[in-house]
Amino acid sequence: MSSAPADKKSADSVIKTAGRVLEIFEYFRDVRGPLSVREISERFGYPLSSTAVLVKSLATLGYLTYDSDIRSFFPTIRIAMLGDWLYDAMHVGGHLLSLMEDVCRETGETAMLSIQNDIYSQYVHIMPNRNQVIQLNVPVGTRRLLCWCGTGWAMLSQQPDETIARLVERTQLRLGKDPIAAKITQEAVAEQVRLVRKNGYALSNRTVTDGAGTIAMALPVAPNGMRMAIAAGGVADRLLQNRAHIVKVMAASIKKSQAGQ
C-alpha cells in the first residue's frame, strides 16, 4: 500500500546536488550494506559519471569509505554523529527510536514519527512492521496538510484555538483552488481537534490514502519548541478492528519513553 508525497511539486525547488546527497544517505539506510557507484546511479537514474564524482567527494570528506575489493562505498560513523544531538533536543530522554520500536512491535503496524513543519505534518522517520503482508508505505520526508491528517490533528490539539484558526486560514490561502480546500473548514478541523482532546488520540480513516489510516498521538513539545506526533499506520479496517489495543499500546509506550525506561 503506497502513498505519494503530498507536495511533489516542491521537489523541483530542491538544489539537485543537495537532494542527491540526502537521497544517497537514505538509500544506505534502507539497504544497510555497501553500494557501488553503478547501483546508486541505477537506483535514482543519475548519470554514472556525476554519481561517481559525488560519491568520491563524500568519501574525501569522510562521510563514506571505499572498499576496493568489492568496489563499493559504505557510510562512516561521521554521518551518525551529525544528528546524535537531535534526540535530546527533540525529546526529553532521547528515547524516540525505542518508542517507535515499541509501537511497531506491539501494534503490528508501521510506526511513523512526524513533526510540524509550517502548515504540514512531515514524516521524519518510518519503521515498517515486516510481519504485515500489506503495509503502509510512506516515504520519509512525505508531507501531509497539518489540518487534514491524523498526526496533524494530534499536534494541533496541543495548541490554542486561535492558533489553529490561523493555521486553517493559511492552509486555505496556500491551497487556493485545490479541491481539498473545500474540506478544510474551520468547523471540520475544530471537530477533529475536539475529538483528539476528548479521546487522547487522532483517527485518520481513509482521509489521505484510500484504504489506509493512522492512529496518532502527540508527543510532549520538545525543549526547542518542536511539535511531534507518533502514529501507527496501516490498513484502515485493521486499525479500526484493533483500535482499543493500539491506543493502549501507544499510550503506554509514550509513558515509558517519558520515564526514560
Count of discrete structural domains: 2
- The secondary-structure element order is HHHEEHHHEEEHHHEEEHH
Assign the CATH topology of the largest domain: Beta-Lactamase
Q: Helical content, roughly?
A: 40-55%
Overall pLDDT metric: 86
CATH architecture type of the largest domain: 2-Layer Sandwich
Instruction: State the total count of DSSP E strands.
Output: 8
Give the C-alpha Rg.
20 Å
Distance, first to last CA: 34 Å
Which structural class is indicated by helix and strand composition? alpha+beta
Largest sheet: 6 strands, antiparallel
> Uncertain segments of ≥5 residues (pLDDT<50)?
2-13
Strands in their spatial order, largest beta sheet: 5-4-3-8-7-6
Assigned CATH superfamily of the largest domain: GAF domain
Total helical segments: 11
Report the principal-axis shape: globular
Which range does the strand content fall in? Answer: 15-25%
CATH class assignment of the largest domain: Alpha Beta
